[in-house]
Amino acid sequence: RPAAGKATGKATRPAAATTSASSTTTTATTGEQIAKQLGQAILEGQHPVGERVGEQAVAEMFAVSRGPVRDALRILERQGLIEIQARRGARVRHLSHNEVADIFNVRGVLLGLAVRYLSRNPDKSGLAEVDPRLAQLRKLAGQKKPSLLDFAQATGRVAMGLLAACRSPKVLQTTYRDLPHDALWRMLWVKPAPPDYESSARRTATYEDYAQLLETIRASDADGAEVLMRKIMSNTRDEVLHYLGLLDADDAEAFRRQVL
Question: Partners of 83 in the beta sheet?
Fold first, then answer.
């Protein structure tokens, strides 16, 4: 993929993407889809820190007008992947240890809120769409050598199902549109040695955590569900930080790993 600001061709124009469960439906805008693709490229190191991200070059790359590109750049700035300065434009910035930890911590808190909503809500019908996702996770966990990417995506579908089932568009939007979490995971899983799920025991433990979480939600135990959700996210956060070599980084603040 060519670098933004130095585009030599055109990337695939984003197609509309829709996520739905129960009564919750969200459709990604063109700007959001551009931000997702460009954010992944930044995280993969295709755009070095300090590189200028030009509006016109990105517009030509994705074959769109500059309006959606401006929206995408604002999203990437909010996610901490670029910095926009007056008269200097947008430039790629360094994503620190603390910011990576924050991504997972914020997601953990929001997912904790989602499972509290689900636990407190007498109507648990939304979980019917999560059950087959959990069954798929169980199937993959039981395989000797599943595709690790498939397994990672299956865990994401369970979490996404829980978010959608809680029927809070605001929680869903904040988790998936205001955090570069998806781009971060896509970057990690194209690596030759991904950071998680290599061992059968780890995959089984992940499935069992989610299975226990659904049981706890159905038992209307909001406190227990939140504790389990935060445990899942804190484990993933620490594994990712370790994989990226950020646990001992100069900008590391240990207290950020003690909040979930």
Answer: 91
